Amino acid sequence: MKNVLITSKAFGSQLDNQHRQQLLSYFADNGWQIIWNPGEQAMSAADIIKINAEQPLAAIAVYSSSDELSSAVFEHCHNLKVISRHGVGVENIDLAAAQKAGVQIKTTADMPGYETVADLTFALMLTIARQIHIIDAQLRQNKWYRPVSSDVWGKTLGILGLGRIGKAVVTRAQGFGMKLLACTGHPDQEYFTANKITLCSKEELVAQADFITLHAALNEQTREMINTRDFSLMKPTAYLINTARSGLVNQAALLNALKTKQIAGAALDVFDIEPAVNDLLLKENLANVVATAHVGSYTFDSIRRMDFLVAENIVTANATAKPARSPANFNKNNYSELKIS
C-alpha cells in the first residue's frame, strides 16, 4: 500500500456517506492507504515532515491554500511523487522545489468549477449592492428595515484577470446590461471586441468601475495588486468583490478604506489565513462587508467532481502497467453522473 496524506478531514465529508465511501474505496482498490491530518488546522511543513518520518508519503492531497508545501517538504519526503490540489491555487506550493524533486503538481483546473465561482461572484455583488445581508439580519430581529441601496443593472463592472472565471463573470454581467472594463496580461482582442469589453490599465479600471471583481492568480507580480493608492482612485460608491485570493489585496488598506467609507463596501470569499476565525476585518463587524467562508466552488455538483478529480490525479499519476480501477458509478468524463443520495 502507498501512503497518501490528506490535509483535511473535511475531504469527502461535505456531501453524503455514499460519496465518502466511494472515495475511500477508490483509494483502497488502487492500493492507497489514507493518512489524515491529525489536527483541525491547516498543515505546516513541519507537520507534514513529521508524518512522513513515520509513514513515508507517496502523495499529498492538499485541501487548503494555508497548507505549507515549502522546499523543506520536498527535501524530506523522498518518496513523494505527486501533489494533488483540491482547487487551482498553487501559491502555497514551492513549485521550483517540486520540479527539482521530480514531484508532479496536479490541480482540478480541468473541471468546470469556474462557472460555480462566477455564480458566487455575482451573488456577492448583488448582496452587497442591495444590502441583502443587513435587511435579512434586521428582519430576523423583527425590524422592518428598508434601506435605499444600489443598482447592479447598467453599472460599470471592472474585471481584473480574464481567465475562465473572469469570462464566466462577463457572461453573467451581460445579462445585467453592464458596461465592461477589463485588465489582463493576455488580452484576446477578438474576444474583447465580440463581447464589447474595454481593455484598460488597472488605474483606469479602478477609477471608473462601480464594481471591481478580482480573478487573477496570486503570484509575486499580482500580490497586493490592490493597495492604498488604488483605493484612493476608487469611487466612494464602488464595491470590491474578491473570490480569488486574499493576497491580491493589501488587507490593511482594505480595512482602512472600509472603515473610513473610502469605498462603499466589499464582498469577500477569501482570507489571508483560513479558517478565518480571527481575521481582523471580520472582527470589526462592519456593515459594509459581506463575507463567506471560501465557498466559491462549494456546490453539490462541484464538490463531487472536485473530490474525485483530486483522487484520480493521485491514482493515475502513480499508475503502473495495471489500469487504475474506477469506483462504482464513477465516470471520469462526466463527474455529474455521480448521484446524490
TrEMBL record:
Biological process annotations from GO: amino acid biosynthetic process
Protein's name in the database: Glyoxylate/hydroxypyruvate reductase B
Any Pfam family: 2-Hacid_dh_C
Alphabetized PROSITE patterns for the sequence: D_2_HYDROXYACID_DH_1
Family annotation (Gene3D superfamilies): NAD(P)-binding Rossmann-like Domain
Entry's Gene Ontology molecular function annotations: hydroxypyruvate reductase [NAD(P)H] activity; NAD binding
EC number of the protein: 1.1.1.81
Family: Belongs to the D-isomer specific 2-hydroxyacid dehydrogenase family.
D-isomer specific 2-hydroxyacid dehydrogenase catalytic domain location: 38-324
Domain of life of the source: Bacteria
